[in-house]
Amino acid sequence: MDAFAECLGRIRRADGYHTDAGAWVTTEAGMVPDSQGIVIGLVVGKQERATDRAVVRTHRLTSVGVILKLHADIDDAIEQQDRILSDLDRALDPTQKFRFPRGYQFPEFQTMEPAPVQQGAGWTGVVVVYSSHIPIHPAAG
Asked: Is the Cβ–Cβ distance between 51 and 61 less than 8 Å?
């Protein structure tokens, strides 16, 4: 999770992204204050048997949910979502210079869906799921 957070923490306007969402990456997605502008929350989803036969005994296929929550008026919610999703796609593009730890597969996009939001909440959100083969027993640091 630390590598995932570090990768997404690079999302800054100063580095050519559309937003500064990288300033607020957390693994405590349920603890995000409503006053925060844009937040990226990370949650581990399910783990399954590896689908790559070469690593079936040493790795698990792990899904990671990226929860994007941003304050937006109803008028610009779609535009705001497009910006942050573009930033997320760019940050998690395997051709970027960021490298995950040895033995970890670069995350692959699986799904994206809007987060359920009550009308008039003043925020919008999406949940994007990535998957990666990660070692069952990560090497000690």
From this structure: yes
